[in-house]
Design a protein that fits this description.
The chain is built from one helix and five strands, in the order βαββββ. It is an alpha+beta fold and 98 residues long. Strands 1-2-3-4-5 form a five-stranded antiparallel beta sheet, with helices on one face. A hairpin with a 1-residue loop joins β2 (39-48) and β3 (50-60).
């Protein structure tokens, strides 16, 4: 993948679910909402100074949230950071850079 370009959208992996789980508390605090269902279903990534992950997460039967998570380069030794989110998404909504 070239720097700045996004990878094609693909089904979420266990590693992506783990990333989503790690930023779930940040989302719940920022959105002022608790999520009992939190299932990563799709993702794309973008190489920047680190990696941006754009993750589609199912939070209810027909309710999805899009997350933007920054994984800093390993030498910076920083935790995963929720950089943004979009609520009120549907299963058919395309993941985009935001």
């Amino acid at each position: 993948m070239m720097c700045g370009g996004c990878s094609p959208s693909q089904p979420a992996t266990p590693e992506i679910q783990a990333i989503a789980d790690k930023v779930k508390p940040q989302l719940e605090e920022q959105a002022n909402r608790k999520y009992s269902l939190f299932k990563a279903v799709e993702f794309t990534s973008q190489l920047v100074a680190g990696t941006n992950y754009f993750i589609k997460v199912q939070v209810d039967n027909d309710d999805f949230v899009h997350l933007r998570v920054l994984e800093s380069p390993p030498h910076e030794n920083k935790p995963l950071a929720l950089q943004g989110y979009q609520t009120d998404k549907s299963k058919g909504d395309k993941l985009t850079v935001f």
